[in-house]
Amino acid sequence: MADAQVIVSGVKKSFEDNLVLRDVSLSLQSGDVVAILGPSGSGKSTFLRCLDYLERADAGTLQLGNDVYDLHDASNKQILEVRRRTGFVFQNYNLFINKTALKNVMEPLVCAHRVPKEDAERIAKEALDKVGLSDRYDYYPSQLSGGQQQRVSIARAIAVKPEVIFFDEPTSALDPELIGEVLSVMKNLANQGITMIVVTHEMRFARNVATHVVFMEGGVIVEEGSPEQIFEHPQQSRTRQFLQQIADDAAIG
Amino acid sequence: MNALSTAKRVAGICLAAATVFGLTACGAAGSASGEQTTTVTIGVNNAYKPFDYLNENGDLDGYEIAVLKAVDDALPDYKFDYKPLDFQNIIVSLDSGKVDVASCVFTVNAERKQKYNLTEPYHLYLPAYIYVSNNSKASIKGIEDLAGKKVAATQGTDVANTLEEFNKKNPDKKIDLVYANWSGEQLATALESGAVDATYSDPVSFDLGQLKGKAKKVGEPIQESETSFLVGKKDTKLAKALDEGLKKISDDGTLSKLSQQYLGDDYTKSVA
Amino acid sequence: MGDYFTWNGFIHFIPKIAAQLPMTLLIVGGSLAIGVLLGLLLAFVRVFSIPVAKQIAIVFTSFVRGTPEIVQVFIVYYGLPLLVQSITGVDIDALSALYFVIVAFGINTAGYLAELFRGALESVPRGQYEAGEAAGLTRGAIFRRIVIPQAAKFALPGFGVNVVYLFQSTSMAAAVGVMDMMGKAANLGSATGRLLQSYAAAAVLFIIISIVLQWAFTLLDKRVTFGR
User: Fold this and answer.
1) Interchain proximity A88–C134, CB inside 8 Å
2) Which residues of chain B make contact with C194, given a CB cutoff of 8 A?
3) Which tens digits make up the pLDDT trace of B176-222?
4) What is the biggest distance separating any 2 CA atoms in chain A, rounded to whole angstroms?
5) Does B4 contact C30 at a Cβ distance shorter than 8 Å?
6) Which residues form a coiled coil (chain B) (predicted)?
7) Residue C106, by phi and psi: left (phi above 0), alpha (psi -120 to 50) or beta?
8) Which of A53, C183, C223, C224 is the S-S candidate for C179 at Cβ 3.0 to 4.6 Å?
9) Does B211 lie in the same domain as B244?
10) How many independent structural domains does chain C possess?
């Protein structure tokens, strides 16, 4: 299962009259870490959400392994299938407020994957250990810091052993001092060969951890390539502009 | 989540219990037996002493109840089922078909004769008298003597209507009718202090009320009201059966006896 | 006070009225069951904007909240048999008045609970739904396991108010002849001529019930706090 490829093809999406995604395609090998960069409004979050049917695309397909799913026209069964084969980490963590950390991680296992409770508990504990929260099993989200909540959220995603994990700006809502712990967990995941698509503003992560960088603007992929290619030798002027902007901001800060 | 499922469970049990209770109550009510007895539902007042009321133990008691029970005994083909109701619900229940008969000291008048079947013989003849304070010096013997005097009255009663009629016919000798929601206490006080000169009542209500010992009746009865049970206009068969039953207990003296027992005197014959 | 009120009589009345507590509980329990189920249904219809059903729900809720409850009791008590008779020809007048009372109170409670539940459901952050969806949970599972328990926290205070109110409004049941606690109090009062005494006794019982309810809801509230 973890050897499967992920191929996204021709995703289009409009909100009312606003064409947000023009035609976006992406291809990953197992173990790839794709960082998607771009200014706000570029459609990168929308793109990611379309892959998990959190937004309904107007057109496009998603291929997981040998199975192709229509991103516009899919049955409930297919939607559930895609969601059970993938993981999603939200900007706002979205942990289940009424459940402890352990129960949060167990929930998809028990409820969506029909794993027996004892096994689910064991797996969940392992996942929480992996993200460094072995001493927080029985804490409620309200009792955890933002960084801790996001790590639980990552544990929840990896526990079901998904073929790919989608990260939607995972550190954007965190206080600066908490960003590091989350990025470090994500780096570990990358090193373990987990396939990830990460929408992010964290340039250093994109540069050092990603295997593939994509720059989006105005609903299209402007340029993509290895981190070295994008950061050292950007071909498109828009890419250069964007990177320059980021560098300027960093200089001020 | 535990709280919700507990609450749901409790609610479920309550609903089940209510259903069981309702069904058994329904079953009990609908158990007209294998013989040809017809069940008749009678709506009765639940708080009108001494005619129809629920006593302390929650049992129906009173003169009209006793009369109905006697009629029930006299009619082997019928079985009476009693529904104690608030006063305002009795007529509505009869009109909407929730009950077959209504019992609430209903006086006989033209309007009711048109709308319903009234049972006969009438089981109650209540004379209305004028009552004055025990220490009153006025010599009042009849309606004419009330001219110019203050009389405590209740809106809508037959006697009040009679006095209004008198006033219409005698505009120069008007009776001053003081309408209010008079309670027994208030009447007694008003009579004693002279705030009003007289009021009216019947001997039965008088005996039970606050006026007893503080007021006295004077003169002859100013009018007499007959009382009947109300039956739906279309229910002629039932009305006839009730009439038969009433005639039976009237003829064999049961009616008079009940009147003596519950009302203190025989009010089953006209004295007008 | 004299004739109106004696302490002895007052104490004496309390167990007599309390004897009707099961009946009162039955009314409250049955009404609550109907109210919660129907209220949830109406709330869902509103939250999910189901066409036609949503309009019906809005009209229904406005009517129930805008008319006096005693009027609704009478409409159900007198009107329902007529309605049922005209549609199915079955005469349900013989049914115990208790049935009608529970239906009337249930409908009324549903109207208030619907608004309460709707507000509570809408207070649950959208992200909770999305996290459940992304994890591959079915709609039903998301509602049962995640949304409703959280909505319960928002709904609980208002719900408690409605329960207490239900207890008070059982006094209307006596108007159609159901002998619950208030009905018994009225009966005793008029049968013995001691209205103040019997209603005071009933009041004491209701105060006790309120205290018990308050304690119960405080406990419930703790259960849905989830560490906050």
Assistant:
1) yes
2) none
3) 999 987 877 788 888 888 899 999 888 888 887 778 888 888 888 88
4) 55
5) no
6) none
7) alpha
8) C183
9) no
10) 1
B201 & B220 share domain: yes
Q: In which element (H, E) is residue C172 found?
A: none
B114 and B201 share one domain: no
> A124 to chain C nearest CA, in Å?
14
Listing from the earlier edge strand, what are the strands of the sheet with A164-168? A86-89, A164-168, A196-199, A33-37, A212-217, A220-225
State how far residue B1 is from chain C, nearest Cα, in angstroms: 5
ipTM of the complex, rounded to two decimals: 0.90
pLDDT tens sequence across B92-122: 889 988 899 999 988 888 888 999 999 989 9
Q: Which domains does chain A have, with CATH numbers?
A: 6-252 (3.40.50.300)
Q: C-contacting residues of A 172-231, CB under 8 Å?
A: none
Chain C: residue whose CA lies nearest to A144: C227
- Residue B206: give the domain boundaries: 126-225
B31: helix, strand or coil: coil
Closest residue of chain C to A142, computed from CA coordinates: C228
- DSSP labels for C49-84? T-TTHHHHHHHHHHHHHHS-HHHHHHIIIIIHHHHH
Question: For residues C59 and C57, what is the distance between their CA atoms, to the nearest angstrom?
Answer: 6
Q: What is the dihedral of CA B47, B50, B56, B60, to 10 degrees?
A: -80
C136, C145, C228 member nearest A84 (Cβ): C136
At residue B4 the predicted structure's pLDDT band, cuts being 50, 70 and 90, is: low
Same domain for B193 and B144: yes
Residue B191 inside a domain? The answer is: yes
Under DSSP, is residue B41 helix (H, G, I), strand (E, B) or coil? strand
* Cα–Cα distance, A38 to A31 (Å, whole number): 23
Tokens encoding A131: 């993200």
The verdict on B20 touching C (C-beta cutoff 8 Å) is no
B161 part of a folded domain: yes
